[in-house]
Amino acid sequence: MSTIEINNTAREYRSIQAMIKELEAEADALKQEMIREMDSLQVDELAAGEYTIRYTLVESSRLDTAKLKAAQPEIFDAYTKKTTSTRFQVA
Hints:
Order of helices and strands: HEEHH
Helix content: 55-70%
Number of strands: 2
Structural class: mainly alpha
Shape: flat
Strand content: 5-15%
Strand order of the largest sheet: 1-2
């Protein structure tokens, strides 16, 4: 690929990323609209034609690593596993 082709590809990539961001904002607005409707009806499940919409509370437990590291750094170090990953960025 030439520099011009890479530049054009990067420009197209950034344009598509911007479109994705706009669509995600639109999707979030629609989601919030459905949540407001469900809240007004005081329901956590709603049948709407071919769709069933659910808005439920989900509880989970997670380890507070910052607190563990501060309180027991040797245990934190003993059970910490380093990983390597790649990152792609067009700036």
